[in-house]
Specification:
Layout lengths: L3 H74 L16
Length: about 90
């Protein structure tokens, strides 16, 4: 025949097992929410980086147009000759 203390031990063991299971379940929910937030942050960062890349490309195109226009103007109005690789040789003296 079981004593009351045996029932208390069984109840204590069962309650501890339930607490552990609830803690594991809560931790898995927390990890799932954290993982979805990380995924969303990656998407936001990649979207931001893409917009920065697009702005840099537009800025580079703008500067290329300005430089090409300036070179064409100089070629038409002066005897300007664009630099060649020979101009960068270190052996010339």
């Amino acid at each position: 025949m079981m004593k009351i203390s045996d029932f208390n031990l069984i109840f204590l063991l069962a309650s501890n097992i339930m607490v552990i299971l609830v803690a594991v379940w809560k931790a898995s929910q927390w990890e799932e929410r954290l993982q979805s937030q990380i995924t969303q942050n990656h998407k936001d960062i990649n979207g931001g980086l893409e917009s920065v890349r697009q702005e840099i490309r537009q800025r580079d195109k703008f500067w290329a147009i300005k430089v090409n226009t300036l070179i064409k103007y100089l070629e038409k109005t002066t005897d300007y000759q664009p630099p060649t690789m020979d101009d960068f040789d270190g052996d010339k003296r």
